[in-house]
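Appendix B. Chain record.
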Amino acid sequence: MLDNPPILTIHRGYKRPDKALIEAFRGAQTSHLADAMDGRGALDYRVKPLDPATASFVGPAVTAFAYPADVAAVFGALAEAQAGDVLVVANDAFTRTAVLGDIAAGMMKNKGIAAFVTDGLARDKAGIIATGLPVFCMGIQPNSPAMHGPGIVGAPVTLCDVTVQPGDIVVGDADGVVIVPAAQADYVLERLQRVRAAEERTIALVQQGATMAAGAARLIEAAVIVER
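Structure tokens predicted for this chain:
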């Protein structure tokens, strides 16, 4: 690089979705949301809740990029966040140090943060769970990070292969995390209702004894049969 980047850069001016729109996604099953977005939108399967019992959340994303082994951006994001926000911190899937511990999680809980999501690691698992803050990460690593920067807050970030814009709607449950782009939220919500209705119909058929999905049955009927 030509010059050292600033220790911390904070981008402001993005808009959060309407609260009523965000609330419409509360309790949504992440698999249903993925179905509503053509089978996409979920973060890497390794991003899982530390405590599945308290994993359900929804809120707008406050994004941050924390350079590996550093948490300046985590605290920058916490400073920018409002109650109900979800801190989404990209960490390049770094595995040598944690990007969150129980003390920072407690501060986030005190501020009313809805959840913390990262492609990095956490530490102090028992202490984090005790705070009650939903935390989704790639695993546990006791090594501690530094706070020297650089870090970026409020800009688009990529966690594994999913891009998250500030203000996107983030939904989590025991299965994982799904990102609903804010620009598509109304469209996704409408499709979500259709997915739920279709799911209810299919579950009812299974409870009545169905042994094959209708779509799969059509594929099987059209299959080329080769006798041996």
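Further analysis of this model is presented in Appendix C.
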